[in-house]
Structure prediction request, 220 residues.
Amino acid sequence: MKAFAVSALALVSICAVSAQTNDPVALAAKVQQRYNGIKDIQGDFVQTYEGGVLRTKTTEGGSVAIKRPGRMRFVYTKPEKKEFVSDGNRLYVHMVADKQVMVSPAPGPDQGDIPAMFLAGQSDLVRDYTPSFTALPGAAPGLLTLKLVPKKPSAEYESIGIGVNPKTLQIQFITAVDTQGGRSSFSFSNLKENRGLSDKQFEFRIPRGVDVVTNSARNQ
Prediction:
């Protein structure tokens, strides 16, 4: 009886996801509902960027930790070390090789078009975007892919996109097309959710001896 119940539940889940694949708004709503119940995420990422006049392509990688709302830490380990850290109030960009830290206000809910801000709980897939099923360059085979056009025009991005695992509705791919035609994409792996990450993991201490740039004003 227990095995039958488990099989029936699995069948219901499969049918529900199958129905969502015919309706991009319904799929976006289910993904949003899933992430509304997530407090934190951590894992690994590979980021690619293709753009510029020569359409050059770069690839970087590292680890990521996110705590909703608004806290993020992207630690790049290859090909060079750098960090992007938001404590919810300020965003720190640490270019290790350049010995420089840039400090700016953290992106808020009105800047949800920034690719990672949905994962940080700063935007809503249905409220803020018009979704459609579109193939996304770089997304792994088998993912359900949605193109998301901001309902409120963005000065920086034309659209973003997500790749969703059809079984778990976990977002494993995010991409964004900027207004210059460049494309930045993140592929996530080894994702773990609701691990109880501490706020301290998103604090940033400015190292000694670095050049600090704050709101376009340079301080030593």
Notes: Residues 1-19 have pLDDT under 50 and may be disordered. The longest strand covers residues 40-51. The CA atoms of residues 109 and 135 lie 27 Å apart. The chain has one domain: 2-219.
